[in-house]
């Protein structure tokens, strides 16, 4: 699977071919998901209409963890096999993971206020997700902190791998500690405890978020490859240096 | 209350539900637009440099 994308030229060709379909299906699935979430799913018997926040909050939390896992695996591949695309993938994923984590934190706060009576609590679940957010930001800052792009990438990869210990802490925080946050109700032994009328909209939204991530990951990776190529061309012909050079590392902004 | 107004009121939770959807839209939509604009700029820049090469 990985070896098919082994060289950047082939990656550009393949990703360019699938991108329109990925982008199109992202828009369709998210539109259906929003309709199900806002119009079809019933209000909760305890939480009333506030339960609709779940449909933007829970998939964002799943993506926050999944994107970090993608970033960590890509970082491992970059460190061990020096695969050029792995480094680019990790750096392209980081801002997307930070965005999903931010959505998770803010929507959780907006849900917590009416249901728990507080915007925030320093319980294990919320604190560990906040740490995840700072790991993403730290990774982005570290990668960009070096003049030498490859040194920045390597330092970032090490940070991404160290940060993996946070993932099981987030996942099991609601079992290990007495948290204000509720325990898992979808991915649990014995099946989901959530009613199917709410589970379906939730899963459609989750697929929509996943498609959005895949689309933007490819877009950002293609951007990084374009920028590297442009940089190489510029360095090869110094007379063109009058034009402003592109930024060294293609992460955020 | 009409059907639409009742729906928009979200059973009294409108001030929490709509900002939650708004934040999701602004953050995720924002990074989508930013990614796309930078992608377009990178393609244009590369095209310009490659045209110069010939």
The largest inter-chain interface, given as chain pair and residues per side, is: A-B, 43 and 30 residues
Principal-axis shape of chain B = rod-shaped
Let me know the largest β-sheet of chain B: none
Instruction: Report the total helices of chain B.
Output: 2
Roughly how many Å apart are the termini of chain A?
30 Å
> How many E strands of chain A?
0
Give the helices and strands of chain B as they follow along the chain.
Answer: HH
Approximately how much helix is present in the residues of chain B?
over 70%
The residue fraction in helices of chain A comes out at: over 70%
What does this structure look like?
- The complex is a heterodimer of chains A (253) and B (54).
- Chain A has one domain (18-41, 50-179, 196-228).
- In chain A, helix 3 (84-116) runs antiparallel to helix 4, helix 4 runs antiparallel to helix 5 (149-162) and helix 4 packs antiparallel against helix 6 (166-176).
- Chain A is globular.
- Helices cover 72% and strands 0% of the residues of chain A.
- Chain A has helices spanning 8-40, 54-81, 84-116, 124-144, 149-162, 166-176, 196-236.
- Chain A contains seven helices and no strands.
- With 253 residues, chain A is mainly α.
- The mean pLDDT of chain A is 90.
- The mean pLDDT of chain B is 92.
- With 54 residues, chain B is mainly α.
- The longest helix of chain B has 40 residues, at 14-53.
- Chain B starts with a helix and ends with a helix.
- Chain B has one domain.
- Chain B has two helices and no strands.
- Chain B is rod-shaped, with a radius of gyration of 21 Å.
- The interface between A and B is large, with 43 and 30 residues.
